[in-house]
Write a structure and sequence with these properties.
This protein is 34% helix and 16% strand. It is α/β, with parallel strands linked by helices and 211 residues long. It has one domain. The two termini are 26 Å apart.
Length: 211
């Protein structure tokens, strides 16, 4: 989650997406949201989920079985890349990272995608007082494909920001418009489903029958 937003706040697009993925594809996706200042909790949760043997350590097989997709908005997008970097140090692959109007947190580097990430995509807007990173790059282009850096604009097509505070609406409107852009999150959901649902962890048939 971006800013000072608590996990699961459904006024925000990333929380709605996680809920939708969990409800529609329960056999293929386990989606969770975290406040961006709870990075240690997020990392611990990922490691626990991967440790299917429950022996407290990850085997090479458990690492290689990882099917991780990280996404976030604003500081949450920066934290997603920071988490990917932490996983890289542990030899754990990431299928995809998705940044939405990424704003780099102090002490982090959200513009360079680590080599354990297979694909990465960046969505941003360039209007208003607060706007996201325009370009992301792969540290190792041979291992990471940058799907694109896509610019959004809401000058002629404003997005409702109902549920957001007056300060955000007055001073950060484009930054929260992109977060509340339903069409963008539908596009992101399509990316996630395409990579999560073709094959389940047992290598069997599609696990993405909607409930």
């Amino acid at each position: 989650m971006g800013g000072r937003i608590h996990a699961g706040n459904l006024a925000h697009g990333e929380a709605r997406l996680a809920q939708d993925l969990d409800q529609r594809y329960p056999q293929a996706v386990h989606a969770l949201t975290f406040a961006n200042h709870r990075e240690h909790e997020a990392l611990r949760t990922v490691l626990e989920l991967l440790n299917t043997s429950n022996d407290g350590r990850l085997s090479d097989a458990e690492k290689n079985a990882a099917r991780i997709i990280l996404f976030g908005h604003s500081w949450g997008a920066s934290e997603a890349i920071h988490l990917a970097q932490e996983l890289d140090r542990r030899g754990i692959p990431v299928l995809l990272t998705i940044q939405v109007d990424s704003v780099e947190k102090s002490g982090e580097s959200d513009g360079f995608i680590p080599a354990n990430v297979r694909e990465a995509v960046n969505f941003y807007q360039a209007e208003g007082l607060l706007h996201g990173r325009r370009v992301i790059r792969a540290i190792d282009p041979a291992r990471t494909t940058i799907l694109g850096n896509y610019k959004a604009s809401y000058k002629s097509n404003p997005v409702s920001c109902a549920g957001y505070g007056w300060f955000a609406r007055a001073f950060m409107k484009p930054h929260i418009e992109i977060e509340n852009d339903h069409a963008l999150w539908d596009r992101i959901e399509t990316l996630i489903v395409a990579r999560s649902c073709v094959v389940n962890l047992a290598g069997l048939a599609s696990a993405c029958t909607e409930k």
